[in-house]
């Protein structure tokens, strides 16, 4: 993949009702996808999920989702920096109507099993503080493998305080492999969707995302990202995700792969894995957590 194809600025991948549409075909892979929907007050869109399972995740707004005769009311949030949100799960082969106001992410994955539509409550989202010092970040594991059942789809949110690095040390998940030292890696495609505090889609302050490959699978990306931008990670080491001082950084990770079991298994770049050991004894950034279920925007 060429670097210019890996970074999709806001507005460059719009199609139909979607302000952003990344299908597996658009990304050049097989499983993972992402759509972003922007609805005016009282707006509505109806669509079919086809062979993909999806989530409806409010980024900023509220919505009612109808699927398979079931109504799911999403309380949502004022912004990704305001609160942990509730969400809805949509199975493959379903017709869906979303009615509401705001901006919504729809992570997706090609699925073989058809599960039931259902509601994910904000209060049930596991919130993890990861790393330490300037590598501290918050992970909202709303659709992690052990938090919410899907066929293939995995999705989490990461919030990084201004000046910190996350997705660090750099890691990869491009092959199914068990290493002699006990590490396990899974083959996963990944989408990063970004928002920067104080920004609007396509405008405002920036963060940065690094992706780099190995000698046999080269890729070289250093993307300046604004609210609404996407970076595709088909393979290679990715990280750090860099939050500029003064501007908190949010990203939504969408992952899917061919494995029979859902996983986020990855391995660190061996040149930088030692950094994890340096966190021992360092405090987590006191600004964390940035959000909790039901918190209000400052």
Automatic annotation (TrEMBL):
GO MF assignments: 5-deoxy-D-glucuronate isomerase activity; glucuronate isomerase activity
Cited Pfam families: KduI
EC number(s) reported in the record: 5.3.1.30
Keyword field contains Disulfide bond: no
Top-rank taxon, per record: Bacteria
Enzyme class at the top of the EC tree: isomerase
Annotated coiled-coil segments of the chain: none
Key words, A-Z: Isomerase
Gene Ontology biological process terms, A to Z: inositol catabolic process
InterPro entries (UniProt xref): Deoxy-glucuronate_isom_IolB (IPR024203), KduI/IolB_isomerase (IPR021120), RmlC-like_jellyroll (IPR014710), RmlC_Cupin_sf (IPR011051)
Name recorded for this polypeptide: 5-deoxy-glucuronate isomerase
């Amino acid at each position: 993949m060429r670097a210019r194809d890996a970074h999709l600025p806001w507005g460059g991948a719009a199609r139909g009702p979607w302000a952003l549409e990344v299908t597996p075909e658009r990304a050049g892979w097989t499983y993972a996808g992402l759509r972003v929907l922007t609805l005016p007050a009282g707006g509505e869109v109806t669509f079919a999920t086809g062979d993909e399972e999806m989530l409806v995740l409010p980024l900023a707004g509220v919505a009612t989702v109808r699927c398979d005769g079931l109504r799911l009311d999403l309380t949502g949030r004022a912004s990704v920096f305001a609160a942990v949100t509730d969400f809805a799960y949509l199975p493959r082969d379903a017709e869906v109507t979303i009615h509401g106001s705001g901006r919504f992410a729809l992570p997706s994955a090609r699925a073989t099993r058809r599960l039931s539509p259902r509601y994910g409550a904000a209060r049930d989202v596991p919130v993890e503080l990861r790393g330490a010092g300037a590598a501290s970040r918050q992970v909202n594991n709303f659709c992690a493998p052990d938090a919410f059942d899907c066929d293939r789809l995995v999705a989490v949110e990461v919030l990084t305080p201004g000046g910190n690095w996350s997705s660090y040390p750099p890691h990869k998940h491009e092959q199914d492999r068990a290493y002699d030292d006990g590490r396990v890696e899974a083959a996963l495609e990944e989408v990063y969707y970004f928002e920067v505090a104080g920004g609007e889609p396509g405008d405002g302050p920036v963060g940065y995302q690094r992706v780099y490959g190995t000698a046999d699978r080269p890729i070289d990306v250093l993307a300046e990202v604004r609210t609404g931008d996407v970076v595709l990670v088909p393979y290679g080491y990715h990280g750090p995700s860099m939050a500029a001082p003064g501007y908190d950084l949010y990203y939504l990770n969408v992952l899917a792969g061919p494995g029979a079991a859902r996983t986020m298994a990855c391995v660190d770049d061996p040149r930088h894995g030692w950094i994890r050991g340096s966190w021992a004894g360092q405090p987590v950034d006191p600004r964390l957590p940035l959000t909790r279920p039901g918190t209000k925007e400052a």
